[in-house]
Q: What sequence folds into this?
């Protein structure tokens, strides 16, 4: 039976919030907006949401057309910024990916914009560990739909989704797979699920399931 591990990005593989906030503030200033700086806390508060919802929360005082246009400009600049500066990886991430790759196919599904996952993979040279990726920005589909889409595309009979927020759990249930909570990340889960206290514990946790 082919088993896949499908990873969330933010709060699971890395924390890019500080550099995302810096890149957005830089672009907003460049475009001439007189707005407060976008803070790391602002970004952490919307991590995991789809891009349209992020625009509503961060730029909600602007018209729908203007907020989406500004969001696109910020996201494009964010990708360029992250390719140059990266983010903060969780401890022993690459060592753990190498171990996991011995027994599992690895994937990423995120609610991010197109190019964000690629920026992560390019900066760290991690593309060699992942067999496929999918995101909201590519097709405007929900995370649950994209988990199911990626699983079908890769012939996965069984899969675990590893994520850190309630929305990740809900999407996994919608897709019909099993969930592991990255408890070191940004959120809590109401349900009782397998809990990962640090990324490097994942191989042992999987062996016990």
A:
């Amino acid at each position: 039976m082919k088993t896949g591990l499908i990873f969330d990005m933010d709060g699971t593989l890395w924390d890019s919030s500080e550099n995302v906030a810096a890149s957005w503030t830089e672009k907003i200033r460049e475009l001439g907006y007189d707005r407060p700086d976008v803070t790391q806390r602002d970004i952490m508060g919307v991590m995991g949401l789809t891009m349209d919802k992020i625009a509503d929360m961060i730029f909600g005082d602007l018209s729908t057309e203007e907020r989406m246009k500004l969001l696109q400009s910020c996201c494009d600049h964010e990708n360029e910024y992250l390719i140059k500066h990266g983010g903060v990886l969780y401890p022993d991430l690459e060592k753990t990916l190498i171990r996991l790759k011995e027994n599992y196919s690895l994937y990423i599904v995120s609610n991010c914009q197109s190019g964000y996952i690629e920026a992560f993979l390019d900066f760290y040279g991690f593309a060699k560990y992942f067999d496929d990726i999918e995101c909201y920005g590519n097709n405007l589909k929900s995370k649950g739909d994209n988990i199911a889409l990626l699983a079908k595309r890769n012939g996965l009979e069984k899969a675990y989704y590893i994520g850190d927020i309630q929305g990740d759990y809900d999407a996994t249930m919608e897709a019909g797979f099993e969930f592991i909570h990255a408890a070191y990340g940004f959120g809590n889960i109401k349900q009782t699920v397998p809990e990962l206290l640090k990324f490097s514990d994942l191989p042992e946790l999987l062996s016990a399931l």
Q: What stands out?
A: The beta strands are 3-7, 14-15, 88-89, 105-110, 132-135, 158-163, 178-182, 195-196. The chain has a mean pLDDT of 95. The longest helix spans residues 64-85. The two ends are 15 Å apart (CA to CA).
